[in-house]
């Protein structure tokens, strides 16, 4: 047995105190004279033996008590029975971005690398070990000491979605004797309770690095309206989160539009709270607009930027397919700088009309060919919007046949009784910004004639009548949107109602082309683009220059799905999505939000809730490499228990002695 603090053992001399006191008490007996020798002998026979046993037991308990307390404070340890010997050594290095944190000794990751190098230097030259980088799960198995040190020195912080569980799990199933050394701050999102940690054959050493629990990050960016027009003022909101236990003041915020500084400001944030920085911008450019927010926060700065973007069209091309054009549509889209409105009869429409349209409004035609509906369906799959207004004067069978290709719910009956609009779906994008709330006494317009549709369908109801029936439905076709009216919205009482403008206007201009797709780095995801007719001969690339890669993609219905796999987008920023050398969109990649939460497991939770207590040792970053590599068992708890046991025994002896005296 060895001691971590051997100098404290000098205090064992204190164990002599009970013995000294015992010897002193022996000299305090009083002489007593009795008239009868027989009476004296009788008393002596009854008490002498029990008194001696009591005194020696009490002396022994007090001596052991003092010895146990001193020994516990001296830090007794014993060497683990299993030395490194033939063990396979696995070193797990936490290179996630929480290690940007710092303490009084500097940057945490620099400390981790130095400790890892110190540990490897303490190994025998003929030893081999495996290095596992936590962020991405990258493993370097069976490396020589020199090679392992080179890997450690060249390692850097990375975004990643792996956990300690992911790396340890295969080690517990390879039937080898493993010594696992984990160097980490043990952020709560990188390790969880798991049955793999219950394996007593996994000898695990945890080296804990503690940093300051201070960080401020950008959570998200949003706009005050879903439709963006060139040179029109738009409010941008940037939400910041303070993970500190104390409030922060004057945090600088910058907003960049296409890499040009557009707006600056500052915010104050309460402890563990969020705050929103708002600013108004005007964008004159058209096309893809990259919008980036930036703050200044050290030492953890990986989440100081947030990337998003929009697409601005110089004009919205609105195509109406109708036997007779609606004057209400002409009035709604009469601003020529913003809209290019065109009404075409079904028999006169051309393919170019459909391909150039942002939104196609099928307005109650008596007849429309299947070729035209196929072309419209394809355009919607590639990102256009379609608004279907059925002709209620046609038979139900004719209507279902006319729009069968769009996979909309079937019409079941034409109702010629008056109904009233009763409820709106305010969570949908066409209403969420335009209508904040609806008063109970709001009078919506009445409808004299409408069509019933199947209730069980995949579309989302946006307007309900007083019979809880759908009057307007919305859904997705590929990369585009579809809206289906069950009544004629151009009847006078609805067209002149305030509800008409946000409904028809937003359904026409809010398209999926308006935004740049977003994803968190290293995570998988999918994105829809227009259908690629011949993908075998089309070049699809994500990224640029040497970092560009060909993603997995497939065609589904009228669109192509781009699939991003884990770790393909490993750094925040903008990634162009190119088809045949033409950029058709961008992917805005942001930091992993969970990494911003600097919350860590403490030693007690790691020992009691996650790792096997009998096979896990926890070390501080200040412990030497020899201590970490030579597993020891700390015995101070056992000596503490022994001390409590001696106190209990002494208490029992004293109580028993008092009872004996009382009865005698």
Description:
The structure is a single chain. Strand 33 (573-579) and strand 34 (582-590) form a beta hairpin. The protein has a nine-stranded mixed sheet, sandwiched between helices. The mean pLDDT is 87. With 664 residues, it is an alpha/beta fold. The protein is built from 15 helices and 36 strands. 25% of the residues lie in helices and 32% in strands. The protein folds into five domains: 2-79 and 637-663, no CATH class; 88-213 and 598-630, 3-Layer(aba) Sandwich (Rossmann fold); 216-313, Sandwich (Immunoglobulin-like), CATH 2.60.40.10; 316-513, Class I glutamine amidotransferase (GATase) domain (Rossmann fold, 3-Layer(aba) Sandwich), CATH 3.40.50; 518-586.
What is this structure, in a nutshell?
Helix content is 25%, strand content 32%. It is built from 15 helices and 36 strands.
Give descriptors for this structure:
664 residues; alpha/beta; Rossmann fold; Immunoglobulin-like; 5 domains; 9-stranded mixed β-sheet; 36 strands; 32% strand; elongated
Please write out the topology.
Layout: E1 2-3, H1 16-25, H2 37-73, E2 76-79, E3 88-93, E4 102-103, E5 106-107, H3 108-121, E6 128-133, E7 139-144, H4 145-154, H5 164-171, E8 178-184, E9 203-208, E10 216-223, E11 233-242, E12 248-257, E13 260-269, E14 274-282, E15 287-295, E16 305-312, E17 316-322, H6 327-332, E18 339-344, H7 351-355, E19 359-363, H8 370-381, E20 385-389, H9 396-402, E21 411-415, E22 419-424, H10 429-432, E23 446-447, E24 450-453, E25 460-465, E26 470-477, E27 480-485, H11 492-495, H12 500-509, E28 517-520, E29 525-530, E30 540-542, E31 552-556, E32 559-564, E33 573-579, E34 582-590, H13 603-610, E35 616-620, H14 625-629, E36 632-634, H15 636-663
Parallel strand pairs: 3-6, 3-8, 8-9, 9-35, 17-18, 17-19, 19-20, 20-27, 28-34
Antiparallel strand pairs: 1-2, 2-36, 4-5, 6-7, 10-11, 11-14, 12-13, 12-15, 15-16, 21-24, 22-23, 22-25, 25-26, 26-27, 29-32, 30-33, 31-32, 33-34
């Amino acid at each position: 047995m060895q001691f971590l603090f051997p100098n404290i053992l000098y205090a064992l001399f204190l164990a002599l105190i009970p013995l000294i006191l015992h010897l002193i008490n022996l000299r305090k007996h009083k002489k007593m004279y009795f008239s009868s020798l027989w009476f004296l002998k009788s008393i002596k026979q009854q008490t002498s033996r029990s008194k001696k046993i009591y005194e020696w037991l009490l002396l022994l308990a007090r001596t052991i008590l003092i010895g146990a307390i001193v020994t516990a404070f001296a830090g007794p340890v014993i060497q683990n029975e299993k030395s490194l010997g033939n063990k396979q050594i696995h070193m797990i290095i936490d290179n996630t971005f929480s290690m940007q944190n710092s303490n009084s000794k500097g940057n945490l990751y620099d400390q981790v690398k130095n400790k890892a190098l110190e540990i490897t230097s303490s190994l025998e030259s003929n030893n081999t070990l495996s290095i596992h980088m936590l962020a991405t799960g990258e493993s370097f198995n069976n490396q020589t000491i020199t090679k392992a040190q080179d890997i450690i020195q060249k390692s850097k912080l990375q975004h990643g979605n792996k956990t300690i569980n992911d790396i340890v799990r295969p080690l517990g199933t390879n039937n080898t004797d493993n010594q696992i050394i984990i160097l980490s701050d043990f952020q709560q999102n990188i390790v969880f309770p798991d049955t793999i940690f219950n394996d007593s054959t996994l000898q695990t050493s945890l080296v804990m690095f503690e940093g300051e629990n201070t960080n401020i990050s950008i959570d998200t960016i949003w706009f005050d309206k879903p439709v963006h027009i060139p040179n029109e003022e738009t409010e941008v909101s940037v939400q910041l989160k303070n993970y500190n236990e104390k409030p922060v003041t004057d945090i600088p915020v910058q907003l960049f539009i296409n890499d040009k500084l557009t707006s600056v400001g500052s915010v104050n944030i309460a402890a563990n709270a969020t705050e929103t920085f708002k600013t108004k911008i005007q964008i004159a450019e058209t096309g893809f607009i990259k919008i980036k927010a930036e703050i200044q926060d050290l030492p953890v700065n990986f989440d100081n930027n947030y990337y998003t973007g929009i697409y601005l069209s110089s004009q919205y091309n609105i195509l109406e397919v109708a036997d007779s054009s609606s004057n209400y549509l002409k009035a709604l889209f009469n601003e020529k700088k913003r809209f290019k409105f065109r009404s075409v009869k079904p028999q006169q429409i051309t393919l170019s009309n459909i391909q150039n349209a942002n939104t196609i409004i099928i307005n109650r035609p008596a007849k429309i060919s299947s070729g035209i509906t196929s072309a419209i369906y394809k355009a919607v799959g590639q990102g256009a919007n379609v608004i279907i207004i059925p002709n209620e004067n046609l038979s139900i069978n004719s209507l279902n046949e006319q729009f069968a290709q769009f996979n909309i719910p079937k019409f079941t009956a034409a109702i010629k009784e008056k109904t009233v609009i009763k409820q709106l779906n305010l969570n949908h994008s066409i209403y969420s910004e335009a209508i904040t709330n609806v008063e109970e006494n709001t009078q919506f317009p009445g409808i004299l004639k409408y069509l019933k549709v199947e209730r069980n369908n995949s579309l989302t109801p946006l307007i309900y009548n007083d019979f809880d029936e759908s009057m307007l439905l919305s859904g997705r076709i590929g990369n585009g949107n579809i809206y289906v009216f069950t009544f004629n919205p151009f009847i006078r009482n609805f067209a002149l109602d305030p509800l008409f403008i946000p409904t028809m206007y937003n359904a026409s201009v809010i398209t999926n082309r308006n935004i740049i797709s977003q994803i968190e780095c290293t995570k998988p995801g999918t994105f829809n683009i227009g259908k690629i007719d011949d993908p075998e001969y089309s070049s699809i690339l994500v990224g640029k220059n040497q970092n560009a890669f060909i993603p997995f993609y497939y065609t589904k219905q009228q669109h192509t799905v781009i699939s991003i796999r884990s770790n393909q987008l490993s750094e925040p920023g903008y990634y162009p999505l190119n088809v045949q050398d033409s950029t058709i969109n961008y992917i805005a990649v942001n930091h992993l939000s969970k990494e911003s939460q600097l919350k860590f497991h403490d030693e007690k939770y790691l020992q009691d809730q996650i790792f096997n207590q009998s096979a896990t040792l926890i070390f501080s970053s200040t412990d030497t490499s020899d201590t970490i590599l030579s597993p020891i068992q700390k015995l101070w708890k056992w000596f503490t228990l022994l001390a409590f046991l001696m106190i209990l025994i002494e208490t029992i002896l004293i109580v028993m002695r008092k009872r004996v005296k009382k009865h005698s």
